[in-house]
Amino acid sequence: MGREWSVLLEFASTTAGRPAETVGDAVEGALDKLKDLHAAASYGPSSFSFRMTVAADSPIAAAVAGIGRLAGVASTVGLPDWPLECVEAIPDEALEAELQKPASSEILVGVSEIALMLGVSKQRASMFTRRSDFPSPVAQLGAGPVWSGREVRNFVNHWARRPGRPASGASKAVRVKELKSGFLSSRKTAGKPMGQSTKKTKSR
Question: How far, rounded to the nearest angstrom, does the alpha carbon of residue 164 sit from its chain's CA centroid?
């Protein structure tokens, strides 16, 4: 079967994008069909990306195989037909070694942490994340979306300054788990480390 490669595919719209919810539904549908490749993904109104593990004899063969698998499910789940902007294929063990390096200062938070930061219930926090002025999630995991802690903190600081906002909830000290930078991999649920950041990165 050859060596295992970590394949990253990034797509972006050259015209008007789509509502993030529409892109997200299609991405989640594709993830369900790519479970055997331990696929992970990120998306926004005008871009989406996938990282998957592919067995092949060379990086080119791995990239071609990854593109082929994604193309095979794209139309069935409604993925936008956007240009492929970046292709990366690196040995899976090289990615794993990169992930073993000390974590960066990037902090990611979920709905539970957002609820603590805002001083509200999880249900209320979930409603906040649907606001048009709330930061977009940086990744969609099996357990739900995650956001940049820095961007959420900026939102909380702005929200807390508005008239009538209680100061106590917004000022609570919050400890959140510091995650490694780089793309987030769904393999975390299988006991493997998370992957690279879902923020757009330059290919190696």
Answer: 34
Write down the number of H helices and E strands in the chain.
7, 7
Strand ranges, E, within 77-167: 84-91, 108-109, 139-141, 144-148
Q: Which has the closest alpha carbon to 48: 68, 76, 29? A: 29
Query: Residue 173 corresponds to which amino acid?
Result: A
pLDDT tens string 173-195: 333 333 333 333 333 433 444 34
- Taking the C-alpha atoms of residue 138 and residue 37, their distance in angstroms, rounded to an integer, is 21
Please list, in sequence order, all residues whose beta carbon lies within 8 angstroms of the beta carbon of residue 107, skipping any fewer than 6 positions away: 148, 149, 150, 176, 177, 178, 179
CA distance 140 to 48: 11
pLDDT band at 150 (very low <50, low <70, confident <90, very high): confident
Burial of 69 (0-12, 13-18, 19+ CB in 10 A): buried
CA 70 to chain centre: 17
